[in-house]
From TrEMBL:
<protein>
    <submittedName>
        <fullName>HTH-type transcriptional regulator / antitoxin HigA</fullName>
    </submittedName>
</protein>
<dbReference type="InterPro" id="IPR001387">
    <property type="entry name" value="Cro/C1-type_HTH"/>
</dbReference>
<feature type="domain" description="HTH cro/C1-type">
    <location>
        <begin position="61"/>
        <end position="114"/>
    </location>
</feature>
<dbReference type="InterPro" id="IPR039060">
    <property type="entry name" value="Antitox_HigA"/>
</dbReference>
<dbReference type="GO" id="GO:0006355">
    <property type="term" value="P:regulation of DNA-templated transcription"/>
</dbReference>
<dbReference type="InterPro" id="IPR010982">
    <property type="entry name" value="Lambda_DNA-bd_dom_sf"/>
</dbReference>
<dbReference type="GO" id="GO:0001046">
    <property type="term" value="F:core promoter sequence-specific DNA binding"/>
</dbReference>
């Protein structure tokens, strides 16, 4: 097991290739230990070089609704009326503090995510 830091795209691709070769190594073997360490190194490299931005509040709400198999009508109590839910999800109106509080509880989303600014559609 010879591990070296991932410093370039070439190193990254070699690490991915090696990780693919040893991914299913039996637990407790040297190859399994190598896979664990290599996985951490690859993860670190990807976080630094391929960051993924968090979704905006409306996308986060839509994603969570899909995960929980909720419809717009299921958010009426948290947002306030069918038309208000539609306005929020179609970016015609901004979320209020009260809506954010309610949605944080209902959808188990962080308030920090929901208070992020986003653009309204025209």
């Amino acid at each position: 097991m010879e591990l070296r830091p991932i410093k370039s795209e070439s190193d990254y691709h070699k690490a991915l290739e090696r990780l693919g070769e040893i991914f299913d190594a039996p637990i407790g073997t040297l190859e399994s230990d190598e896979a664990d360490i290599l996985g951490l190194m690859v993860d670190d490299y990807e976080k630094k070089n391929y960051p993924i931005d968090a979704p905006d509040p409306i996308e986060a709400i839509k994603i969570r609704m899909e995960e929980l198999q909720l419809k717009q009508k299921d958010l009426v109590n948290e947002i306030g009326g069918k038309s208000r839910v539609s306005e929020i999800l179609n970016r015609k109106r901004k979320l209020t503090v009260e809506m954010i509080r309610n949605l944080t509880i209902k959808l188990n989303l962080s308030p920090e995510l929901l208070i992020t600014d986003y653009r309204l559609s025209r």
